[in-house]
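Hi again,

Forgot to attach this to my earlier email, sorry! This is the prediction with FE2/S2 (inorganic) cluster bound. I've pasted everything inline since the attachment limit keeps bouncing my files.
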Amino acid sequence: MSAVHDSDNERVADWDPYIARPGNFFDELFVKLKPECEELIGLYEDSRSALIPLAHLFQEHEGYTSPNALAAIAHLLGQPLSVVESTISFYTLFYRKPVGRYMLQVCRNLSCLMNGAEEIMAYFREHLGIGHLETTADGLFSYEEVECLASCDRAPCMQVNLRFKYDLTPKMIDDMLAAMRAGTYDVKPRPQTKAPERRWKVEAETGRKSAGGVGVSNPNNAGGVGDRSGVIMLDRIVSDTAFAARSNERLAHEPQLRPSTGDGGHH
Ligand code: FES
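Structure tokens for the complex follow:
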């Protein structure tokens, strides 16, 4: 099957380090960024440590981390693609699909919820006319509700194109959206090398949040208030004696896992 070259939302990498395609956007971007990539890699003792800086670099130019960018990073680092994908997919810092010029990521975690994040999330949804993991029809805004952004002391907070905005109020959101629409906001819009789709939710509702989480949660569930995944998982663990038995068995077979008693284990 031939690779997709000109789809607006390609899902599979078509970049090949050994084939030059004159006029191809990504091929030209790669040639342009290669010296900077090599400089970044040279900063680290272990080249793998450059994985995240490289992903930021490609995302800054493409507006998202495309399949081609992931393939190029794997090539540059001499790592399997799976290593790059599993790292990048862990962070909401990286956008795996084309997104709007403003990526609005509102924290939905505990401190923010206790300080009014629910109202902030509802306000964004209402005023943008979109929900979690969606983009406005004009391609200007993408909206996502994310886990703790590590600024709990300034809750409720969010990131706009990865820049922090703290102590949010509905009035701040009004001003923010108006300034973005007028092109006067203090955070620069992102480059948009591909048109975003309306939503980037997981298509099949059969995914899991974790290996043991079958049936626990819908990956399209925004989580936060009302998401009982954690509670359900906890119930399963405490009421399932097999978990305890398995962990004891592991301790018996792998003595190095036993907690140290401080006296070499002799009593
Ligand atoms: S809970 Fe929102 S930043 Fe930590």
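Residues 1-94 form one domain. The two ends are 67 Å apart (CA to CA).

That should be everything now.

G.
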